Amino acid sequence: MMSKKPASRFSLRKLVRNWISLAGAVIAAGSFFAFLLLFSIEMFSQHGNPYMGILAYLVAPSFLLAGLVLVLLGYWLHLRQERLAMDDAPPVALTIDFSRPRDRKILGVFIAGSVVFLFMTAVGSYQTYQFTESVHFCGKSCHLPMDPEFVTSQHSAHARVECVACHVGSGASAYVKTKISGMRQLYHVTMGDFQRPIRLDSTKLRPARETCEQCHWPQKFTGGFERTFRHYLSDEANTPFSVRLLLNVGGGDRKSGPVGGIHWHMNLANKIEYIATDDEQRDIPWVRHTDEKGVVTEYRNPDFKGDLSKYPVHKMDCIDCHNRPAHNFLSPNEAVDISLACGRLDPSIPWVKSKVVAALAAPYSTREEALKKIDESLRAAYPDNPKVGEIVAEAQSIYNANFFPEMKADWRSYPNHLSHKNWEGCFRCHDGKHKTTDGTGSIKANDCKSCHLILAQGNDAEIKKLNSDGYDFVHIDAEYSDFSCAECHTGAAPKE
Ligand code: HEC
Ligand code: HEC
Ligand code: HEC
Ligand code: HEC
Ligand code: HEC
Ligand code: HEC
Are 103 and 230 found together in one domain? Predict the structure, then answer.
């Protein structure tokens, strides 16, 4: 009786001796192998990579599962065929029978095929890894959403730095989180429902310790750092007006140099924390400084009447000043000044500064529309100028590098905190308004000489006359009332 129902008992031999199960087993083994490989690449690579996570933890296991399902399916079909077949009937086609030469031959081919398959899986996994690490993958694969960041990063000092070095970083702490967010991003890109402009929740950006500080040493003493800002006024002559600054970058580590200056906020001896009431950290009503002896000083802007306990406390790091190290969307004013200074636009063309700035700053909804209207407006402005073709070409090239209307990405959507001219930047805290709780002290470094000296300023002749004590700022002939430069300077034509 029992011998008539052999199928009811599990047998490893039957599990393996049918083609479907065997194929399933090879797929399962291949994907398990791929998983192990991807997993170890991930473990030993310098930076994690969210897309590798998708491969390692989603794609490879799905194939593994599919392989196992095939194994069971083969087993089940095998049992069914065995049940259908009479006891004395010849072995069913699905079953492998080594007494048949045909089956032996197929098995030989099968084994050879499996070896090749496993080898290809290994090579394939490694190549996929290399590809997902590349700047090209991050910047170009999801084309539209990442295009603004890809293009701007290619014009930055970090053009050769991989996206993942800043966005994923090293260390295992946020590992799983990054994987999940990578999958979520992939979903939103596929569905086309991503936000425009894209905003990173910078509280979720990895701390500088795990990104910037893998390459930059926070203890470095920089000391003075000289920069010349070349500008041209919006008058008929495009009058040059430059400012030559000696920035007191200094340093924050006593072993490397005197502690002080702009890089004093390195969180080495001091810790600075703050509360921002908006996502872009533009409004900072509260700041807390803990010095090396543990003395805590709190500063508050008395104009802020809201409830501070609603907001998270951030610890200040590199990205609070260098928030655009790779994606600096130049304002029309900055970009046109650079073109004029480099001779790509000719400063002898009357009104060229203001005309090109106006053409760039106008609102456009697509790139096609923008390039067409820039061309039309500049040709209308210079109907008889033989150089009009060059002007249009330069204006369009500035547009292509810094404006992404389909993603609503340009200088208007992404403030740069490193300065204080077009956005509050340093003046978010150093505006003289933040007071200690007893109302007596305020954050120091709120006069024009604590962060930089103006070595020279003015037109091409004046900019050569250096003053090592620093000039007082002479603001052309326009009056400026107080600290806030950003009240008038918006990145396009300034308000009078
Ligand atoms: C040197 C470090 C660095 C590199 C390299 C880098 N980024 Fe960024 N990226 C940042 C920082 C910092 C921010 C956040 C700015 C903020 O929140 O104010 C950012 C923001 C973004 C944003 C959000 C939109 C925005 O502009 O704020 C996207 C998308 C992005 N990066 C994509 C990329 C891509 C794609 C690459 C590679 C082509 C890349 N990044 C390379 C540092 C970097
Ligand atoms: C993978 C290494 C790497 C990482 C990560 C990195 N940087 Fe850099 N950074 C560089 C290199 C290399 C340069 C110098 C480029 C040159 O001078 O050609 C540089 C230059 C700079 C400069 C000078 C810029 C200039 O215009 O001259 C600043 C500021 C800076 N990095 C800030 C940052 C910040 C902030 C982060 C983190 C968000 C960061 N870096 C992450 C490698 C890195
Ligand atoms: C308080 C604002 C602030 C913070 C915080 C800050 N920086 Fe800077 N950093 C500046 C300014 C301003 C300059 C002046 C040069 C410039 O305009 O690029 C500068 C210059 C630099 C330079 C170019 C000079 C040099 O030494 O080569 C690098 C690189 C740099 N910073 C990296 C960093 C890194 C890395 C961090 C975080 C560990 C950091 N900075 C934190 C404001 C800041
Ligand atoms: C989140 C608030 C905040 C921001 C933003 C900020 N700082 Fe500061 N900074 C402070 C605090 C707090 C101190 C310490 C004030 C004190 O001791 O009275 C300080 C001190 C300084 C000092 C004096 C250091 C010394 O030698 O003792 C300089 C210089 C300075 N900051 C420059 C800058 C520059 C430049 C920027 C913009 C690129 C900037 N800060 C942005 C909060 C900030
Ligand atoms: C808290 C530090 C700090 C204080 C205070 C400060 N500045 Fe600046 N200033 C900066 C930094 C940082 C930059 C930009 C450096 C950069 O972009 O590399 C800058 C840039 C400038 C520039 C050049 C801007 C450009 O784009 O041409 C001028 C001019 C200037 N400051 C004038 C002033 C005047 C006038 C005052 C006093 C009312 C003042 N600053 C106070 C930190 C400061
Ligand atoms: C009351 C409005 C107002 C304030 C406040 C103001 N500016 Fe200006 N600024 C102007 C105007 C108007 C011009 C002339 C612009 C032109 O001809 O293109 C100008 C021109 C400049 C220029 C040269 C041209 C250019 O486009 O860059 C610089 C540099 C400058 N200002 C820096 C500053 C700084 C730094 C501060 C803050 C310390 C400041 N300004 C505050 C209105 C202002």
Answer: no
Q: Let me know whether 229 and 170 are in one domain.
A: no
Is 418 touching ligand 6 by the criterion CB < 6 Å? no
Q: What pLDDT score was predicted for residue 99?
A: 82
Structural domain ending residue among the three candidates 407, 442, 473: 407
With a 6 Å cutoff on the Cβ, whether 385 touches ligand 5 is no
Q: How far is CA 326 from CA 161, 204, 420, in A?
A: 9, 18, 19
Express each pLDDT in 84-134 by its tens digit.
775 555 555 566 777 888 878 888 888 888 888 778 777 777 777 666 666
Mutate to test the pocket of ligand 1, among 186, 327, 412 (most ligand atoms within 8 A of CB): 327
Mutate to test the pocket of ligand 6, among 485, 490, 495, 496 (most ligand atoms within 8 A of CB): 485
What ligand is nearest to the CA atom of residue 212?
A: 2
1 band by pLDDT with thresholds 50, 70 and 90 = very low
Which residue, 2, 7, 1, is CA-closest to 84? 7
Q: Do residues 119 and 150 both lie within one domain?
A: no
Domain hosting residue 125, numbered range: 2-133
- 3-class DSSP assignment, residue 456: strand
Instruction: From 146, 141, 138, select the one nearest 404 (Cα to Cα).
Output: 146
Ligand 5 atom having least distance to the Cα of 242: 27
- Note whether 234 and 296 are same-domain residues: yes
How is residue 464 written in tokens? Answer: 């050569």
Pocket test for ligand 4, best of 290, 322, 444 (most atoms within 8 A of CB): 444
| Highest-pLDDT range among 40-49, 71-80, 251-260, 385-394 | 385-394
Considering the domain architecture, whether residues 256 and 304 belong to the same structural domain is answered as yes
Three-point CA angle 304, 307, 311, nearest 5°: 100
Provide the whole-model pTM: 0.85
Q: How many structural domains compose the chain?
A: 4
